[in-house]
Design brief:
mainly alpha; Tetracycline Repressor, domain 2; 5 helices; elongated; DNA-bd_HTH_TetR-type_CS; HTH_TetR
C-alpha cells in the first residue's frame, strides 16, 4: 500500500495499477489478487491513511487541557502526519 500512496501522491488518482505494481515490485496480477479493483485498493489506502492520522491525533491528546493546548496538539499531530506521509511517498523504494 505504501507504493500506492507514493504513486498516487506523484500522479494523482489517474495513476495506473501497472505503475503501482511496478513501484511495489510485484506483478499486476499479484496486486489484483489482494485488491480486485483499483477502487478497492484506493479505498484501502484511504482507510489506512485515515487510521494512521487518527492514531496520531488521539495519541497523547490532552483532554483535560485548555482549548489552545488541545488545538496545538491537533495542529502538531496533523503537521507531523503530513510530513511523515510526504517523506514516505518520496522515499518509498529508496
Amino acid at each position: 500500500m505504501e507504493a500506492a500512496v507514493a504513486i498516487v501522491a506523484q500522479s494523482g488518482l489517474s495513476a495506473t495499477t501497472a505503475s503501482i505494481a511496478k513501484r511495489a515490485e510485484v506483478a499486476v496480477g499479484t496486486l489484483f489478487t489482494y485488491f480486485p479493483t483499483k477502487e478497492q485498493l484506493l479505498n484501502e489506502v484511504y482507510l489506512m491513511l485515515k487510521q494512521d492520522m487518527s492514531d496520531l491525533l488521539v495519541s497523547g491528546y490532552p483532554k483535560d487541557a485548555d482549548f489552545r493546548t488541545q488545538i496545538m496538539h491537533i495542529w502538531r499531530a496533523y503537521t507531523e502526519w503530513s510530513l511523515k506521509i510526504r517523506m514516505e511517498s518520496r522515499c518509498s523504494g529508496c
